[in-house]
Specification:
The chain is an alpha/beta fold. It has helices spanning 12-17, 51-64, 82-95, 128-144, 155-167, 187-196, 209-216, 242-249, 272-295, 320-325; strands spanning 41-45, 70-72, 98-102, 149-152, 175-178, 200-202, 223-228, 252-256. Strands 1-2-3-4-5-6-7-8 form an eight-stranded parallel β-barrel, surrounded by six helices. Helix 2 packs parallel to helix 3, helix 2 runs parallel beside helix 9 and helix 7 runs parallel beside helix 8 (242-249). The chain starts with 11 loop residues before the first helix and ends with a helix.
């Protein structure tokens, strides 16, 4: 079992020397869970939208010494050609990096007007049978090209893809990652997503440390969290909390997002320079986070690069036998 990091408070030792009170940590807040390899945390570079952007990320990660466990793309499988997907699969395989692609149509891009109101309507969820079917089509196409991690933004899509995985229509080693844009915000919701088939779950970046502890009391499913969030997710920069995020939220994917940058989705060549520049800077942000962890003596416990197994998770019972015989 990996040694758990001691509670870290930036500036704590200096503040104690002058008699300034430093909040005490409760050891009971420490997550009891880890990845199957014993690691407490992994890394993810999000918004890697093309083979060219992926090449930048991989080159920068090598130059700056930033280990990368996973890269994810946000525009969707349907925004990439077969050749582009195959190139990204090959490049990630060479470096033992997991590639995660977003599935299908989403409510914010179709004709539904409610997503453009102040209420946001159903958000990114797949609207209607056609939306659901489009996500399934994307999943089937992606796994046929070698992708083994799919990003979903709809509970119905998640449950459907999980049932297809149980039935053998999708490979058994396919993993499903829940988007931050529908991420659960309480322990019960987190547990429900796990049981619907989620293998890792983005939680909104504004959850408190106490919220992470509450989640860890009901679920060990891997958690994804932006250490720095893009502006459309709040623009939060939580670098100084990273050690505590790991202690409370393990097993945890540290996501290196980027605030104060324009959106990329859906990506196309007209956004090329912006995509490459932000890809490069996301890796640099990762270096800053890793350096901070090292300065605080909290950089131990990382999973080996190439690890992707989420471990045994709780699931709702499905009609898998009926699916196999149909």
């Amino acid at each position: 079992m990996t040694t758990r990091p001691a509670p870290r408070r930036p500036g704590g030792d200096a503040l104690r020397r002058i008699g300034h009170p430093v909040p005490a940590d409760d050891p009971a807040d420490t997550s009891p869970h880890s990845f199957p390899d014993g690691g407490l945390w992994r890394t993810e570079v999000p918004s890697v939208e093309s083979p060219e952007a992926l090449a930048v990320v991989l080159a920068e990660s090598e130059r700056l010494g930033v280990p990368v466990h996973r890269v994810s793309q946000g525009s969707g499988v349907w925004m990439l050609t077969d050749a582009e997907i195959a190139e990204m699969v090959g490049a990630c395989a060479e470096r033992a990096v997991e590639l995660c692609l977003f599935t299908g149509p989403r409510g914010t891009w179709d004709t539904g007007a409610a997503t453009r109101t102040d209420s946001g309507g159903g958000g990114l969820r797949a609207r209607g049978q056609d939306g659901l079917a489009g996500c399934v089509e994307d999943a089937l196409r992606a796994v046929a090209l070698g992708v083994r991690c799919l990003l979903v933004a709809d509970e119905g899509v998640l449950w459907t893809l999980h049932r297809l995985r149980e039935a053998g229509t999708l490979p058994a080693d396919t993993t499903f990652k829940v988007s931050a844009l529908i991420g659960p915000v309480n322990p019960a919701a987190y547990a429900v997503h796990e049981r619907l088939g989620a293998d890792s779950l983005n939680v909104p970046s504004d959850l408190t440390l106490a919220h992470l502890t509450e989640i860890r009391r009901v679920s060990r499913a891997p958690m994804d969290l932006y250490v720095e969030a893009p502006d459309d997710l709040g623009g939060y920069v939580r670098m100084y909390e990273t050690a505590e995020l790991i202690r409370r939220g393990a097993p945890l994917y540290l996501k290196f997002g980027l605030s104060r940058s324009a959106g990329l989705y859906p990506y196309g060549a007209h956004l090329r320079e912006h995509a490459l520049a932000t890809a490069r800077e996301r890796v640099r942000r990762g270096r800053l986070v890793l350096d901070l962890l090292a300065r605080h003596g909290a950089d131990g416990g990382m999973s080996p690069v190439g690890s992707r197994n989420p471990g045994e998770l709780h699931r709702f019972a499905s009609d898998v036998e009926a699916l196999r015989s149909s």
